[in-house]
Specification:
The complex is a heterodimer of chains A (784) and B (288). Chain A has 784 residues and is mainly beta. Chain A is built from four helices and 51 strands. Chain A has a 22-stranded antiparallel barrel. A five-stranded mixed beta sheet of chain A has the order 9-16-17-12-13. Chain B has helices spanning 6-21, 234-246, and strands spanning 26-30, 41-48, 55-60, 77-81, 86-93, 96-98, 110-121, 124-132, 141-147, 155-161, 170-177, 180-181, 190-193, 205-211, 224-232, 270-276, 278-284. In chain B, the strands form three sheets. Chain B has an eight-stranded mixed beta sheet, with no helix packed on it. In chain B, strands 11, 12, 13, 15 and 17 form a five-stranded antiparallel beta sheet that branches. The longest helix of chain B has 16 residues, at 6-21. The chains are: A mainly beta (784), B mainly beta (288). Strand 50 of chain A pairs antiparallel with strand 1 of chain B, so a sheet runs across the interface.
Amino acid sequence: MNKTFYLLLLLLLPAFAAFADTEPETPGSKRFTISGNIRDKESGEELLGATIYVHELKTGTVTNQYGFYSLSLNPGEYKITISFIGFTPIEKLIQMRENITLNVEMAPARQQLSEVVITGERPGDNIRKPEMSVVRMDIKTINRIPALMGEVDIIKAIQLLPGVQSTSEGSSGFSVRGGSPDQNLILLDEAIVYNASHLLGFFSVFNNDAIKDVTLYKGDIPASYGGRLSSILDIRMKDGNSKKFAGAGGIGTISSRLTLEGPVIEDKTSFLLAGRRTYVDIFLPFAKNEDIRDNVLYFYDLNAKINHKINDRNRLYLSGYFGRDVFSNEFARMSLGNQTGTLRWNHLFSQKLFSNFTLIQSMYDYELGTAEGNANSFIWKSKMQNQSLKGDFTWYINPDHTLRFGVLGIRHTFDPGFARGTGSESLFTEYRLPLNYAMEYGVYINNEHKISSKVVIKYGLRLSAFQNTGVATIYNYDSDFNAIDSVLYGKGKIINTYIAPEPRIGLNYVINPASSVKASYSRTVQYVHLAQNSTAGTPLDLWFPSSPNVKPQKADQLAVGYFRNFKGNAFETSAEVYYKNMYDVIDFKDNAELLLNPKLEGELRTGKGWSYGMEIMVKKNIGKLNGWVSYTLSATRRQIEGINEGNSYRAPYEKPHNISVIINYEFSERAVLSSTWVYSTGSPVTFPTGRAVIGNVIVPIYSDRNSYRLPDYHRLDVSFTYKNKIRENRTWQGEWNFSVYNAYGRKNAWAINFQQDPVNPYVTYAEKTYLFSIIPSITYNFKF
Amino acid sequence: MKTLNIKPLFIKAFGIVAATLIMASCTEKIDIELDESYTRLVVEGSITTDTTAHIIRLTRSTSYFFPEQAPGVSGAELTIDDGSNLITLSETEPGTYATPTDFHGLPGRYYTLNIKLSEPIGGYDNYTASSYMNFPAPLDSIKAVFRSEWGPDGFYEITCYVQDSSSVDFYMFNVFKNGELISDTLNKVFVTDDRFYNGNYTNGIGIGYLNQSYERQKVNPGDVLAIESARITEEYFKFVTQLQIQSGYQSPLFSGPPSNIKGNISNGGIGFFAAYPVSYTTTIAESN
């Protein structure tokens, strides 16, 4: 602990030194600050990541996650350019003789597709920003990607990025640089989303119409984030149009959506309300299989947000998400969903010190039950939730130093399972697993330091802590993982504490305006884990905390990248290599029992993992023909005592070669053809190397885990979007989207099973299951 | 979680969700080349409280695509030790060994099977396995209830009535129709623990299912339906559960990584030597 404290102090010193730099004010050299917000002129939405570039100094800044920027400059006259992809850049002359507040509203670039605009200085942010292994996707790009059943999906779009793999066909689970799906922190307006999927993972919980910004950190994770090993997916909801009442929506093959937004008080208060519901069940009565005709099966999502600008220094945001999957038939019923709520307060202590305070509540729960009226009627419920309190500060000390610091506290409550009989005839007694309580804390400080116009370094430290608290029963396990005895801890009693320093370092060396080299190191620590050992994942999630028996998972990641733009930044290319070491990685013993098991910890096995790879991406953002190509070469292995006889084995998501090609062609302003082609090596699988016959059943004998692979996976999706004519004096804009998933009908193996021949039961053969052949869909989208 | 229908239930529930969602899902035969591993000894057999010749089968493991019956292991010497007596088994057909016909197990004893092979398999010629025989827990009565809403032709559900004891127990149920064993493979046998109803009166809980779409399981009024119930050990319960999972359909959604099932045979032998007490309860099917 002491060591950590000194380390923190050491890291703080340069920051204070930097601050001290600014303070000795010789008269006439005092700096002034220009700050403000950058917004979309049409909707009033804050633009995140817009660039403010100062020509004289060849430097600049970027708006933060609330659209705020701040720059301190020596007195004088400067030319600044404000730019953001998809918007017409704005140039301004500013006189720095005093502190200035400059709020800018940018107009969407109508002609952005024609080559004319490109001649302007495109910022080349990807070259200059001291961050790597990060991808931002704007909703427009995501909307064009052809989607399964026309359901445009953020997570499916993310799976097309280098270093990101889908866990199985059609699944919204994803693996980043060899990590497991539970090692991704998914945040919606800063609230943890425990399970981001609907309908067994085939759709994600995010309704595109309500989303403003999507950022994925695959490595080089900022010190302000923590709690997961592999990645952070930070999703921000729109704030709601503050200029005029507007709406958007769509009618699709399996769902419809509607978003309404508008000002309550113009330029002060605005709201957003978005809903989506599927109607798969409407088609059920036509199903061939009689059994499913009476089924109920749907999901819905609701996003709501309201924000209020108290004054130029204070702004409040209240946002929430509520979604649920409902399924029932004559035997069973199931219901599950996420709920999140976020209250945020942006406060400007000064033009240089931006702060945000956040109060968060989020929850995931599910219940599974049988029809009532039988002796074995029961219901089973499980729930996990957290409450968090956060304060984040950005101190724009001077153009060379930006200091970010903050604190976070999370209270976790896990209700791993509760089963009881239902109806008067049920004989089941109540069966409850004890609740788990834990506290997680984080403090961080990070300085972004521009050493010269060519070199920017980032150094920071996150210090995280985790405590299990009572009431709890902690089992002690022997070397064979059998519980030998247990200790009961009283209410509120601190059972165990883990503290971990997490250093984060990054370097950016700009070789010339079109190329740069970046390097980063980050340590991440994860304290809560998911008990799930199927690859695609079921909705029956069970999160469990680190404890005296379960050490936190840790990872060290080192990455180096080369970034190069061509043709006036029309082409962005990047190549990154990474190496990641993971410690105390969790896997489950053979035939593990994970659900409703009070001694779950005895089913865990821990060991080490390592992953390395190379990611190449070529991206063209502008022009009639645009899109990207990405290629990932990677390997991930685990070595865990008690699994695979202690030998190393392939991690379940290891796919050495992975290619994504996304091409959009814009015939005109009204017609766009998009296509996606993906290829990856087949997922690792375990096949039998022998068999035994026991009780007239053929029992497989397995040797090495994951030593085989499914056949290679590839698929082409195509979509065509046709916009109706835009008429003057009419705000209604409609567009048709026709898409085909798996256009050439590749029968990609989802599972391989071994079957007994019906005639001769001693003959066995392999059989693959494939989910989707060619799936066409039509969606009508509108805006008003 | 193979516990009182929970796993089958959620697989069924999810299966239907999946089937609904994935109306286009299909299967297709494919060719796969599999490696071969070394041959292991496979032991299966049990002794019960019935007085009869109890059978132990010894076979060899084979390559996965071996298109014939598992080869029997002949010429072995098998004995069963119950702590006070040593019973010698005799080979009745190649690989099949039987106790004397007047043999029956006694509850409360440990039974140890000793196998001495004439030549080593998997590096060993000596194998042992032990199993405890529980005290019986007979059912008070059973009923056959027709469930027309399950499946296209309905199911007969066999429901049971008994006061469950206060201990944590594991049960196995076999179904007979007119004296014929219907649950004739180990993946049709119904096993359960009493975690969720421990100590309660089992007021009609389902313990056997007869699918009326299949000729062998079809029940006509007047048929005699019988349940053989056995209080088994936790170890055997886990073995049967794992066998049912590992020999069943595996998919990325529901299945964990494929794993070898854990039996009680020493020296890397595969299979289980079980001992359990059996009781029989019968009912006559009424017309539905």
